[in-house]
């Protein structure tokens, strides 16, 4: 599902963030990418959804070589990937319902299919009573769940999450992890970047460690 | 598609004053263009009649016999710039006067019934490019030098002025059109700028460029259409109010109205395809 081959990443101002990174994540796996802040976790995720292009090396995601991918193909790659961002990236002027519906609108889903699917996701994430609220009117934890619901709206092949429990209390964090686990049982590959070591240990899943831009398998 | 339309209306609603200014600008441009078109509709008729009207008349001496007149006519016909020559005899001139003045002619000619004071003449129409003051003056000078020609009159410069006005009117129209497109352009740019974070999120969830651009382009088209229709309605109101006072009764023909609305849409579309690449490209 995800293959990194000797990937190096250097930002424009000469700041090198990844050094010869290689790892594989197979289809249907549940993998944590753990490391302290600034280790390069977000960069790895951004490379996976082709928000960044590596300085060198090859990346293959969902069977596509991202180095050879045309710009016009990027939207179609992203439709196969669900992303939960650290800062949620919710549309501030849209309701919870509309935020969750966005990926379905993007792929041209019908109105009734959108309504049905969004209502299911609202139920799954416990947000039914908040569906008409705007992001600024709900708590951080609720915003997190909206971001998760949006990420899984199109039933993606791969789910990426960047610190998805960063704003949640331990109980809610575990609840969210159980939700990811349930999605993983349904066949979605889950790749989560986090520095919450306690939670990672509790989940007992495969762990890839990243430190100062270098990757180590645990 | 319904999403794109929803987004377009959302952009129009949220764009507020900027969109309103764009719409008003296009409406004003449409009013001015309508006024120019209406003026051209009326003046245009005059211009066309000038092209077929004799703009130079050479009055002939009474002493010329028929064969001399024939020779003179063919000599004039061969002159550069001359399109056609029509001979009007003294009797023909008299007949024309009778037609023009009707009953009043008897009062004018009273006591002169046996004398025809009107001269014979050659009425000359000129070729397209010869309707300029300099060329007409040259032609008149040449005609005046011919034997048997007593006097030469040429039309005033009205025809030429009309042509120049026509060009000026279209120039103004073009400038107004470009100005309208520029204002829609900035309006769409501003929308894209204010929505840049939203556009980025859309890109991240897999929106194609056209999915993002569609509402922005439609926004421009709608502003163009709305502005042009409002402008036309306003101009019709102005026309109904002032046309009787200036003696005009005919409004713009339907094809011109459609053309103006299409122009509005076109300029709106042009503005809608604003350089928003940096906001929409993945």
Task: Describe the protein.
The complex is a heterodimer of chains A (218) and B (282). By secondary structure, chain A is of the alpha/beta class. Chain A is 34% helix and 26% strand. In chain A, the strands form 2 sheets. Chain A has a 6-stranded mixed beta sheet, sandwiched between helices. Chain A has a 4-stranded antiparallel beta sheet with strand order 2-1-4-5, with helices on one face. Chain A is globular. Chain B has 282 residues and is α+β, with helices and mostly antiparallel strands. Chain B folds into 2 domains: 2-49 and 160-280, no CATH class; 54-154, 2-Layer Sandwich (Alpha-Beta Plaits), CATH 3.30.70.3040. Chain B has a 4-stranded antiparallel beta sheet with strand order 2-3-1-4. In chain B, α1 packs parallel to α8, α6 runs antiparallel to α8 and α6 runs parallel beside α9. The longest helix of chain B is centred in the first third of the chain and has 51 residues, at 2-52.
Outline of the structure:
The complex is a heterodimer of chains A (218) and B (282). Chain A has helices at residues 41-48, 74-78, 96-106, 111-124, 140-152, 170-185, 197-203; strands spanning 2-10, 16-25, 30-34, 56-61, 64-65, 81-84, 158-162, 189-194, 206-211, 214-217. Chain A is α/β, with parallel strands linked by helices.
Question: What is the count of helical runs of chain A?
Answer: 7
- Give me the side-by-side strand order of the main sheet of chain B: 2-3-1-4
- Assembly type of the chains comes to heterodimer
What is the average per-residue confidence, as pLDDT of chain B, rounded to a whole number? Answer: 80
Per DSSP, what share of the residues of chain A sits in E-state strands of 2 or more residues? 25-35%
**Overall 3D shape of chain A:** globular
Rg of chain A computed from alpha carbons, rounded to a whole number of angstroms: 17 Å
